[in-house]
Design goal:
It is built from 10 helices and 10 strands. It is α/β, with parallel strands linked by helices. Helix 8 (209-220) links the parallel strand 8 and strand 9.
Length: 305
């Protein structure tokens, strides 16, 4: 059976849609890892193959920048880049797509570490220049006082040309202010260029119709939006699940053929993790190994939701 990449090839952005090699709308779907430094055991080909068997075609690799063990704090950069390489090559071998995610969080202003980001993406695109299945997410969740769209846009306008030197046709995902919620601001003043998409992140128990309205506004203005992180709990990554809102979001995304990455592929003791805490399996999970969040992902990838 042909893999997703064999069927769909290098992706393009046309209007508001991600499209495949034949120009047909195409939906990427799968999980995001938690910080790869904290849960490296899930970065393996068998884990990704399990996701593929469920119907997934995407893995998002979250490279935290400023948290404990982060790329720019006390993390071993060579080790972290090695984990990324393992993930990219495993996804590639399986014919899946993969996002290399510069996971800004506590360092909320992307300008803070802009020069490091430019060095990182120069190295990544040099290494993966021939990988048409790789997408680049340049700032996970811009946030904090004064971090408005003008700030993020200026950052993007410096980082994108670095990527374009070696990956002129790669799809690039740009985070938006307010923890990647203000896609409406980006729609009013988008970054010039092609093959660009804009991140929206939602947590269904917190982000409801008002955020879907922002996405509708943005897409109605022609902005291509990518759900590069979501879960069904609250915005902390924990708390109760809101299945009613989760279904509304799923229907909303599927009607618009929006791609998505569900947070998170790990067994952390929080609602958003997909694998139960006692489970030590790093692939081949059965239903009893999965949390409610993990079961939702499996069902959604399989077309049951």
């Amino acid at each position: 059976m042909a893999t997703a990449f064999e069927k769909h090839g290098a992706l393009s952005v046309r209007g508001t849609q991600l499209t495949d090699k034949d120009g047909q709308p195409f939906q990427l779907k799968g999980p995001s890892t938690l910080g790869i430094v904290w849960y490296p055991e899930y970065i393996n080909q068998a884990a990704f193959e399990t996701i593929r068997n469920w119907g997934g075609n995407l893995i998002r690799l979250a490279m935290y920048t400023a948290e404990d063990g982060g790329y720019l704090t006390d993390g071993d950069q060579d080790y972290l880049k090695g984990l990324l390489d393992t993930g990219v090559k495993a996804a590639t071998e399986l014919g899946m797509y993969v996002i290399i995610d510069w996971h800004i969080l506590s360092d909320g202003n992307p300008q803070t570490n802009k020069e490091e980001a430019k060095k990182f993406f120069a190295e990544m695109t040099e290494k993966y220049a021939g990988y048409d299945n790789v997408l680049y997410e340049i700032c996970n969740e811009p946030n904090g006082e004064g971090v408005d769209w003008a700030t993020v846009k200026a950052y993007a306008e410096e980082v994108i040309p670095v990527i374009r030197k070696k990956a002129p046709k790669a799809v690039i995902i740009i985070g938006t202010p307010n923890w990647s919620q203000d896609v409406d601001h980006a729609a009013d003043d988008p970054v010039a260029g092609e093959q660009l998409m804009y991140a929206v992140h939602y947590y269904a128990a917190t982000h409801k119709q008002y955020l879907r309205d922002k996405v509708s506004y943005a897409m109605d203005k022609g902005l291509p939006v990518f759900i590069s992180e979501y879960s069904n709990c609250d915005a902390s990554g924990n708390g109760d699940l809101d299945e009613e809102e989760a279904r509304k979001w799923a229907e909303f995304a599927d009607e618009r053929c929006m791609s998505y990455a569900q947070w998170n592929l790990a067994n952390r003791d929080e609602t958003s993790s997909m694998v139960k805490v006692p489970c030590t399996k790093t692939s081949g999970w059965e239903d009893d190994d999965l949390t409610e969040t993990g079961l939702w992902m499996k069902k959604r990838l399989g077309g049951e939701i």
